[in-house]
Amino acid sequence: MDQKQSFTDVLIVGAGAAGTMAAACAAAYGLNARIIDKRPQKLAAGHGDGLHARMMEILDTFGLADAVLQHGNEFTMTHSWVQGSDGRVTRQAASSRTWEPPSPFTSVGLTQAKMAHILLDYVRQHSDIEVERGLMTESISVQQGSEYPVRVTVRNISTNGGMASFTADNDIRVDNDEELLATTGRPGVQDEIIKARYVVACDGAHSWIRRNLQIPMIGDDMDVIWGVMDIHPLTDFPSARTNSIIQGRGTGLMWIARERGMIRVYTVVGSAKSNEHGKFIQSSVTPDTILAAAQKMLHPYTLTYKKCEWWAAYRVGQRVATHNTHESDRIFLAGDAVHTHSPQAGQGLNVSMADTYNLLWKINLVVKGLAKPDLLETYHSERLVLGQQLVDFDRQWAAIISGNEPPKPPPGIKTFRVTWESIITHKFVPLIHGLQVIYPPSSITLSSPDTIEAASSVMDQGKLPSGITVGMRMPSYQVRKHADAAIEYLGKSFRSDGRFRFVVFAGDVSDSAHLERLRALAKWIRTLMEQYSLPGCQADSTFDNILVHTTSSLTVDLLDLPDIFHPFHPELGYNYDKVFYDEDITNRFGHRIGSAYEKYGVDRHKGRLALLRPDGYVAHQGGLEEFDPVEKYFKGFLIPRK
Ligand SMILES: Cc1cc2nc3c(=O)[nH]c(=O)nc-3n(C[C@H](O)[C@H](O)[C@H](O)COP(=O)(O)OP(=O)(O)OC[C@H]3O[C@@H](n4cnc5c(N)ncnc54)[C@H](O)[C@@H]3O)c2cc1C
């Protein structure tokens, strides 16, 4: 047998939503990583189709939000419809931008395939990581004590053109491994042993790695079979270019207005239990079955199509894995490998990508020797509970959308209560948009049970807490750039570069007392930067510093401010992108912008120091002269430079 052996710091298995985000992070941080996928070809169409506000914010920190907006369709309106006893649908509520979350972004409809292309283009531009397609895992084991303890054997199955039998418009069969193997490659040819420090299993709902590690999934299947299709509609439905939710009796339909004039329709096509025609079989579903079910739900309006880009039928399994981390602390599961749920709330893509966005910065710091391996334990404590909450939310959401009563939540799981009324009044908006995430107190998040309690009670009302909340993502408000007075969202400067970020609200820096306070703070930050910089790297390799003051840029010169806020590059000169000021102004469209201090809840005289984790979540906030908690924080999990 022809077997080669190779080594990598991080092996990502699966190039779906979670895997491509993991690869983008690895590229951004300069990690030594590989990504493999059993599919010999990249995804062509279909699957997940919506990115929500938090994910758009994250993509913006990679500089990718514009590309998504260019190719996608921004969701601006959602209409709610109800089917009457005469079978006719009537519109109950139409929301104009009311699903708009407190974020610079709202949701964008875009096929997962295009999303993956955008991320993988980024990966190619920033690293030499390429998806290695047609590589399927065959065995996995851990040898503790070794430098590269995880040993994964992979088989190359891309050696013939058998995949051509999997058409792009319904590629669901590709998840059937036996069929995949029967139509591709010769068994055993070009097997490879990959030895890795860490493995990130992003291998989807039927995760081979999860099954091999014997990590159980808890939950069950929904009774209904859903059909989904991406079509160019020929229709007189009045809400054709907005999203719609139609509730029927024991059934439902979701209509998503997509890019290029396309729509996605999800509709119930049958019950998975026996009915009067015998057991409904998922594989008997065709595009015609889905269209017929949709036509019935849209009465008296009509729907046909000539062009279908993708379709699928599925029975939803609502399950969560008992663990997302293997006992060796070397293998992590992410995305659908940990939580499966219905696609109707559009969470699959978003939560899966958010999993690896949470994990990769931690792996990066550990692999580079800057953080203690304990840091990785927080992946379990932060992400698994979110998976559980997501599945519970989905049970309610999917039941309501399919015209049924929502089930009661399992004891001990705190989730938002979904009702048809809450859908119409948009109370779930922060949750849908991924903005409600609040990480529990831990070595990397100095939140307190009181903060969490207070924030949760606000979020129960469908709102987000105002200001900065430790444990939540740092909100993004408009400020002006000191160097050129350009109006920008502050969140744009929270780049995904693997660094912690001090956001300093310094007040009026033309006031000598405020300026002195800022200088003392900057001096202290400088010592931290030196203490924790990466071996062989610049002093700013671990920390980035952003300043927001309240003084007009004409009063104070940028270069008179501490140099950590305008680092100098020998070839590129000064960096002018880190200092902002808050000004309450009205823009040329008559919109009031600014007042960032007010929105962040920061006192203009006292100022505030916010410490952000590399994923943009607030780790701590405190006074500008309170150094102790921050020093203790870093001592807790970082390893100082010798
Ligand atoms: C048919 C279908 C329709 C869907 N429709 C929607 C939708 O309409 N809306 C929505 O929000 N979500 C939808 N989803 C869900 C959404 O796509 C997922 O939630 C999301 O993609 C999960 O990301 P992931 O990276 O965890 O898994 P996936 O995106 O499924 O990626 C897993 C990857 O791992 C690879 N892989 C699997 N096993 C191995 C192995 N042994 N070795 C190497 N590679 C392997 C697979 O080829 C695949 O590329 C759909 C999913 C499917 C399968």
Automatic annotation (TrEMBL):
SUPFAM superfamilies: FAD-linked reductases, C-terminal domain, FAD/NAD(P)-binding domain, Thioredoxin-like. Signal peptide: none annotated. This is FAD-binding domain-containing protein. CDD domains: PHOX_C. Belongs to the PheA/TfdB FAD monooxygenase family. Pfam families: FAD_binding_3, Phe_hydrox_dim. InterPro entries: FAD-bd (IPR002938), FAD/NAD-bd_sf (IPR036188), Phe_hydrox_C_dim_dom (IPR012941), PHOX_C_sf (IPR038220), RIFMO-like (IPR050641), Thioredoxin-like_sf (IPR036249). One of its GO terms (molecular function) is FAD binding. Residues 8-393 form the FAD-binding domain. It comes from the Eukaryota. Keywords: FAD, Flavoprotein, Oxidoreductase. PANTHER family: MONOOXYGENASE, PUTATIVE (AFU_ORTHOLOGUE AFUA_6G03030)-RELATED, TRK SYSTEM POTASSIUM UPTAKE PROTEIN. Residues 438-641 form the Phenol hydroxylase-like C-terminal dimerisation domain. Gene3D superfamilies: 3.40.30.20, D-Amino Acid Oxidase, subunit A, domain 2, FAD/NAD(P)-binding domain.
